[in-house]
Design brief:
264 residues, mainly beta, Laminin, 3 domains, eight-stranded antiparallel β-sheet, seven-stranded antiparallel β-sheet, elongated, Kielin_Chordin-BMP_Reg, disulfide bond, signal
């Protein structure tokens, strides 16, 4: 494999992600050497490939392998842990304001919102903010509906939701034409005719990135759903609803308002 060199005597156990020292406890050592390849210094075996040690996963309490970069909360949400270079690193953690720790018997505990509020866009177009203010705005460009502030508390995910308005003949009024959501490093476009585009590629529905993000269709309506309970729906014509959990109170800006319980 790449990043390996030939040797006339392959060790009984080569260093690997599962056995970084190559000790091979309990394995019988062969009496004769065999030719073969060993990983270069700084690399270890992972599924027959030589990879840098930094790309190895971590062992969990049950001996399973966790992928690099995986994050989770400890029991009681008191620590936030991440798998880095074969080691689990944990830091003290508290669920952000507007949320609480929700135990999960089959998985890791999570921070669940105390409640959610909705912002809606409909008609030509009318807006109703998270704080209940209703108004009409006839711009024919792409506008920010929701955008998180620059500095966020630990555990609150940055996000942007935009609405693209367009005049649709034979009407002379402006209508919502498309919803764009930027979250977890993805750009998701909910388009007219209920089409889905992810990072400039058209995708089939239902679409699931991972346990954090998915897009489904119900009753002729697209739904983007995240693990922290952001829900963005679009009917493919002129109506969108954004449901945002309470941990975002006061942490957003845009045409949907700043979510501060004040209509002004």
């Amino acid at each position: 494999p790449t990043y390996s060199t030939f040797t006339t005597c392959v060790p009984a156990c080569s260093p690997s992600c599962q056995d970084p020292e190559g000790w091979c406890k309990g394995t019988e050592v062969p009496a004769t050497c065999k030719e073969g390849c060993v990983c270069q210094p700084g690399y270890v075996l992972s599924e027959q490939h030589c990879v840098p040690w930094s790309q190895c996963g971590c062992k969990d309490a049950q001996g399973g392998l966790l992928p690099v970069g995986k994050t989770w909360l400890s029991h009681g949400c008191t620590q936030r842990c991440v798998c880095k270079a074969g080691a689990i690193q944990c830091q003290p953690f508290t669920c952000p304001s507007g949320s609480h720790c929700q135990p999960d018997a089959t998985s890791t505990d999570t921070c669940a919102p105390d409640k959610s509020e909705q912002c809606s866009v409909f008609g030509d177009p009318h807006y109703r903010t998270f704080d209940g203010l209703s108004y009409r705005f006839q711009g024919r460009m792409t506008y920010t509906l929701v955008k998180t502030v620059d500095v966020l508390p630990d555990g609150v995910e940055p996000l942007v939701v935009e609405g693209r308005n367009k005049m649709i003949p034979p009407f002379t009024s402006i209508f919502l034409h498309e919803i764009l959501v930027m979250v977890y490093g993805y750009t998701i476009q909910l388009q007219t005719n209920l089409e889905l585009v992810v990072n400039n590629q058209k995708m089939a529905i239902p679409y699931k990135v991972n346990e954090h993000l998915r897009v489904t269709m119900r009753s002729h309506r697209l739904y983007l759903i995240t693990n922290f309970e952001l829900v963005v729906s679009f009917d493919g014509r002129n109506n969108a609803v954004i449901s945002l959990p309470s941990m975002y109170e006061g942490l957003v800006r845009g045409l949907c308002g700043n979510y501060d319980k004040n209509r002004r």
